[in-house]
Amino acid sequence: MGEKKQKPIVLTGMQPTSAIHLGNYLGALKNWVAIQGEADCLFFVSDMHAITVPQDPNQLRKNSIDCTAAYLACGLDPGNSHIFIQSQIIGHAELAWILGCLAPLGQLERMTQFKDKASRQTGEFVGAGLLYYPALMAADILLYNAHLVPVGEDQRQHLELTRDLAEKFNGIYGPLFNVPEPLIRGGCARVMSLQNPTAKMSKSDPNSLATVFLSDTDDQIMKKFRSAVTDSGAEIRASDEKPGIQNLLNILSGVCGKSIPELEANYAGVGYGKFKTTVAEAVIGCVRPIRERMETLKKDSQYLWDVLENGRMEAQARANALMAKVYGRIGFVRRADL
Ligand code: TYM
Known about the structure:
- The structure is a single chain.
- By secondary structure, the protein is mainly alpha-helical.
- It folds into two domains: 9-188 and 301-330, HUPs (Rossmann fold, 3-Layer(aba) Sandwich); 218-296, Tyrosyl-Transfer RNA Synthetase (Orthogonal Bundle), CATH 1.10.240.10.
- Helix content is 53%, strand content 7%.
- The protein has helices spanning 22-35, 47-50, 57-74, 92-100, 105-109, 112-120, 128-142, 156-173, 218-226, 243-256, 260-266, 272-299, 301-330, and strands at 9-14, 40-45, 81-85, 148-150, 181-183.
- α3 packs across α12 and α4 (92-100) crosses α7.
- The two termini are 34 Å apart.
- Ligand 1 is lined by residues 12-15, 23-24, 27-28, 46, 49, 137, 140-141, 149, 151-152, 154-155, 189-191, 200-201.
């Protein structure tokens, strides 16, 4: 009798800070949807990461539910995947503490995202949570013994630390954790700002024209693309000297599925203005149905609650099974509830 091949465990999440943007969708969520059938998937809302910078409590709670609605509207299927909220599971913080004790301080201090976010906290204190963030992220992943972590390019460094911590733990306490692989796919792994195409598209960009949100209206999307910053040339070509056009080509390719060379050939000789409108129309065609599904789902709070409660029960059972092993390895006294 052949052994039944186990599906790989896939885990990933997103912070519920404001609405989800096009970079989150094309760089991450779209790939999560694609992998669902082939893997044992856990998708969560990382509200514990969100509080590493100040949040309004009511807004954070609302954003967590809206983020769940966005996951479903983009195509995550609760019949196939487990969807839950990080702070509802006992285990993330506990394992983060243990992994944090193994994480070299220098490595945490060298994290690009820490340096970047800490430098933006001008006039406010920099919370230790910002430094500790990658240990929590490692815990999220290792708590479910994930094999694959689909993310955008900006999370690569955090994944490297996760791999280091898994190996270090296994080396000290004996093999327990899978060493997870990042899954970073395609030209949209780093979608850039529409106003500064050398910086990544981000939720916290102060320029409201820089970021396209999945909640944007058709008119807002059109306006943002029409005012996208490009170079002074006239050629529709992907090149590092033309970061604005390259970004628009990547976005169009991510939305319509055609390759960059194919798009370059299709739009040869087309002016920038016309090209921006074309990209906007393609993005509107992709975002509109998601936005409409999101609005419908947000009205059905009982359904969202049921999805999250099913996800919570499954995630907690798995977290308990793993933490029982961790307690044993570390030398903590057995917990009767695990
Ligand atoms: P977050 O919330 O910043 O982003 C969610 C996902 O979107 C990707 N992403 C992008 N992809 C392409 N272009 C962009 N401009 C862009 N901006 C964001 C991110 O790479 C990410 O995949 N730390 C994580 C959340 C997290 C997590 C985890 C992820 C917490 N624990 C465990 C994986 C596994 C974060 O802040 O993502």
